[in-house]
């Protein structure tokens, strides 16, 4: 039987939390590469929180996915056929090919990677966009110094795991925040953070106990109640790296609200001379990817950078897995193995 393509489309825009009916799964004909294009078979798809933003029409830094179009996403796979110079069948590649098994892409959107360096799925997590996000945000905004105290929310997740371990490599005391005892145990025992706070418990009491000296760097992945508890604990000249506010993504008001939590008193920004900066990895991250990858492979070889993946089998299960990501159901970097 001839091979077909499998695609996940955006059927309608979610109101609040996405549901499976917001997606449509279709089988289509295998696409044919035009002159100058490459046909890629995806082996792994990365599921990431930003995709919730692409499902919405609200104004943002990137265009929404059109209704009826393939959901946007990073994939890793191999070249099946090539009509472009520099690529041959069997090459391992990384790129934004969407929630689909096959795609025709222009070489400008392809990164060739060496499959011997690390397992393929790692190039979507620790060695991929989330890892690069951690590295760029710390280099440019967090600027950790030895002896400083760093707090990282969503610490067991794709970005958080890398942020905290890079903080440890730079000599910081690192406190994670995660949902539940199992994730907290992983963060301290496997990743080597100094402590981990369960955000389902009393945040204030746990923060008092873990960082009585205050906080120099807060890596914000979550927003809402976690942000409200961390903010008053900043020390003078603290830095808040605004990476994401996942607790707000399904709220009707969107990411510009505090999701019912009290907003921070911004007077402290003046008094404590705080630096708060948001960033998007695609602003200036990808040109630095080769340097990032080299450094990370070095940390991995030295046993200083561990990673955990949550691998879901089959593209048809991508919508449910993505819905779970926005509620903390994943444990580690969420990827789909495409059958
Ligand atoms: N600025 C950028 O360029 C950039 C790039 C990549 C990612 N990001 C942002 O970085 C953050 C983390 O992304 P990731 O890919 O590493 O995801 P992730 O941490 O692997 O997965 C998301 C985690 O967020 C936590 N979470 C989900 N819903 C929550 C809620 N309502 N309240 C509190 N915590 C909740 C859960 O962890 P717990 O169970 O531990 O709570 C969940 O496992 C997101 O905000 C994302 O948008 C930004």
From TrEMBL:
SUPFAM superfamilies attached to this UniProt entry: GroES-like, NAD(P)-binding Rossmann-fold domains
Record field: transmembrane: none
Keyword Metal-binding in annotation: no
Coiled coil: none
Alphabetical list of InterPro entries matching this protein: ADH-like_C (IPR013149), ADH_N_2 (IPR041694), ER (IPR020843), GroES-like_sf (IPR011032), MDR_fam (IPR045010), NAD(P)-bd_dom_sf (IPR036291)
Species assigned in the record: Siccirubricoccus soli
UniProt keyword list: Oxidoreductase
A Pfam family this chain is assigned to: ADH_zinc_N
Protein name: NADP-dependent oxidoreductase
PANTHER family: PROSTAGLANDIN REDUCTASE, PROSTAGLANDIN REDUCTASE 1
Domain Enoyl reductase (ER): 18-336
Entry annotated with the keyword Oxidoreductase: yes
């Amino acid at each position: 039987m001839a091979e077909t393509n499998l695609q996940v489309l955006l059927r309608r825009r979610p109101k609040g939390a996405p549901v499976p009916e917001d997606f449509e799964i279709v089988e289509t004909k295998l696409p044919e590469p035009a002159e100058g294009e490459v046909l890629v078979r995806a082996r792994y798809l990365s599921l990431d929180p930003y995709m919730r933003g692409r499902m919405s029409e609200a104004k943002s830094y990137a265009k929404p996915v059109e209704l009826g179009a393939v959901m946007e996403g990073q994939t890793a796979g191999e070249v099946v056929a090539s009509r472009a110079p520099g690529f041959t069948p069997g090459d391992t590649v990384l790129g934004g090919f969407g929630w689909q098994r096959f795609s025709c892409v222009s070489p400008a959107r392809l990164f060739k990677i060496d499959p011997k360096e690390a397992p393929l799925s790692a190039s979507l997590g620790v060695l991929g966009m989330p890892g690069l996000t951690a590295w760029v945000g710390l280099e440019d905004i967090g600027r950790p110094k030895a002896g400083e105290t760093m707090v990282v929310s969503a610490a067991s997740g794709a970005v958080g795991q890398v942020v905290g371990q890079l903080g440890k490599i730079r000599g910081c005391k690192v406190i994670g925040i995660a949902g539940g005892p199992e994730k907290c145990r992983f963060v301290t025992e496997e990743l080597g953070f100094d402590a981990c706070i369960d955000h389902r418990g009393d945040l204030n009491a746990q923060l008092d106990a873990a960082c009585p000296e205050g906080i120099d760097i807060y890596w914000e992945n979550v927003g809402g109640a976690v942000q409200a508890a961390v903010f008053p604990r900043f020390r003078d000249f603290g830095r808040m790296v605004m990476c994401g506010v996942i607790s707000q993504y399904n709220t009707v008001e969107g990411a510009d609200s505090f999701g019912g939590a009290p907003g921070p008193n911004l007077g402290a920004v003046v008094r404590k001379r705080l630096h708060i900066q948001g960033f998007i990895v695609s602003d200036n991250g990808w040109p630095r990817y080769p340097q990032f990858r080299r450094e990370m492979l070095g940390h991995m070889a030295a046993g200083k950078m561990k990673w955990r993946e949550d691998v879901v089998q089959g593209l048809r299960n991508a919508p449910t897995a993505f819905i779970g990501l926005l509620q903390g159901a994943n444990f580690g970097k969420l990827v789909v193995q495409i059958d």
